[in-house]
Every structure is written in C-alpha cells, then in structure tokens.
C-alpha cells in the first residue's frame, strides 16, 4: 500500500472522479444479461434432453 | 464506476465497454458476494479485473504494453501539491503508455502491492516496481507542467 503523501492525495482526488455513463450502456447491459440467461436456460434444456 | 474504467482506458467508448462487461459479471456473480466487505469495493474489484482483462485482450493496448525489465529507479520522494481537478488528473494518467497506466492505477489508486500486480499482469514484481517509478516521475512532471500553465493563465486573466 503506497503510504506516500502524493499517492494519498491522488487516491482522494480520484475518488472524486464521477462520470455518468450514457443510456446505451444500461440498455446493452440489460440486453446481455437477458441473452446470457437465455443461453443458460437452453443449455440446461439441451443437457436434460440429451441425457 | 465509470470513473474507474475511464482511468484504465484511452477512450470513453472503451471505458463504457469495460463498464458494461463489468456490470454483467456483477449481476451473475452477485451470489458470490459475501456481506463481509463493502459492496462498492467488491464491485470496484470486478471493474478493475475486467479492465485488466480488456487491456490484455485488446490489441491496441496489448501491443503497447511492453513490460521490459528495466533497472530499478528509486522512487523519487517528490510530493507535488495537486491543484488539478479530478478529471484533469485522470486525463494525465490516461496519457501514460498503457503498461505504465495500468501499473500506476493499480498501485497508486487501487493500492495493490507490486507482488499482486505482478500476478495480475504476468510480470515480475521488480518490473512492476521499476515501471511504477517511471510512471510516477513522468506523471509528476506533467502535473507540474500543467499546474504551472494553469497558474500563468490565472495571472494573465487578471
């Protein structure tokens, strides 16, 4: 853990860095979660069917 | 969390890509989160790991991440006053070459040790240490330069 004064100040300043993501980010996250969930479901179905 | 991703990448688009990927991971791994630590810190760790994987996977970053063994430079004890705003400071960190940028963020901001960074990036802790020293002195010179510019602008404006 850097204990230097410079690193401390830097950490503090970087904690203040607040950026707002665009709306597309949330749409895409939602889309990807849904897609991955569907894939998992179909994988379970496929493995059940083939067993 | 976009701020974290922003510090590790070279464009807002890349930062948002990392953020998206990170959030999907958070969603699917939330069960693994143990209510011991702070949730924010847990999410942040996922974001940092996602960012590092992104850099390793992405040619634009990977090709420029030369982790060559260099003689160890003693870390200078300079502690310049930071008069810059968070965004200005983050933009200076983002101007470092990708390898320096990653190591600088991991050590100075996230607080990982050089041994941990070595494991994360597949380099020796000595390499991490010497690259950190170079990144740090480069950044300090930029901070001083920009701070001086700001000061002169202020005088000129009066």
What does this structure look like?
The complex is a heterodimer of chains A (51) and B (158). Helices cover 76% and strands 0% of the residues of chain A. Chain A is built from two helices and no strands. Helices cover 69% and strands 0% of the residues of chain B. Chain B has eight helices and no strands. The mean pLDDT of chain B is 89. Chains A and B meet through helix 1 and helix 2 of A and helix 1, helix 2, helix 5 and helix 6 of B.
Q: What class do helices, strands and sheet pairing of chain B give? A: mainly alpha
Summarize the helix and strand pattern of chain B as letters. Answer: HHHHHHHH
**Strand residue content of chain A:** under 5%
- Parts with pLDDT < 50 across at least 5 consecutive residues of chain B: none
Give descriptors for this structure:
heterodimer, A: mainly alpha, 2 helices, B: 158 residues, mainly alpha, 8 helices, globular
Brief rundown of the structure:
The complex is a heterodimer of chains A (51) and B (158). Chain A is mainly α and 51 residues long. Chain A has two helices and no strands.
Draw up the topology in text.
The complex is a heterodimer of chains A (51) and B (158).
Chain A: H1 5-15, H2 23-50
Chain B: H1 2-8, H2 12-29, H3 39-57, H4 59-62, H5 86-93, H6 98-109, H7 114-121, H8 125-157
């Amino acid at each position: 853990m850097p204990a230097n004064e410079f690193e401390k100040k830097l950490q503090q300043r970087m904690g203040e860095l607040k950026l707002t993501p665009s709306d597309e980010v949330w749409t895409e996250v939602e889309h990807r979660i849904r897609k991955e969930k569907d894939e998992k479901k179909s994988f379970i179905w496929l493995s059940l069917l083939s067993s | 969390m976009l701020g974290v991703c922003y510090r590790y990448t070279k464009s807002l688009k890349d930062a948002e890509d990392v953020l998206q990927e990170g959030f999907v991971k958070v969603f699917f791994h939330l069960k693994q989160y143990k209510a011991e630590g702070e949730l924010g810190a847990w999410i942040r760790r996922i974001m940092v790991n996602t960012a590092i994987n992104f850099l390793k996977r992405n040619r634009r970053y990977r090709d420029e991440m030369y982790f060559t063994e260099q003689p160890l430079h003693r870390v200078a004890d300079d502690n310049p006053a930071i008069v810059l705003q968070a965004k200005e400071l983050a933009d200076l960190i983002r101007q470092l070459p990708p390898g320096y940028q990653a190591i600088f963020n991991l050590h100075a901001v996230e607080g990982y040790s050089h041994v941990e960074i070595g494991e994360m990036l597949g380099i020796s802790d000595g390499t991490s240490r010497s690259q950190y020293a170079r990144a740090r002195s480069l950044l300090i010179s930029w901070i001083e330069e920009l701070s001086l510019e700001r000061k002169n602008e202020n005088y000129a404006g009066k």
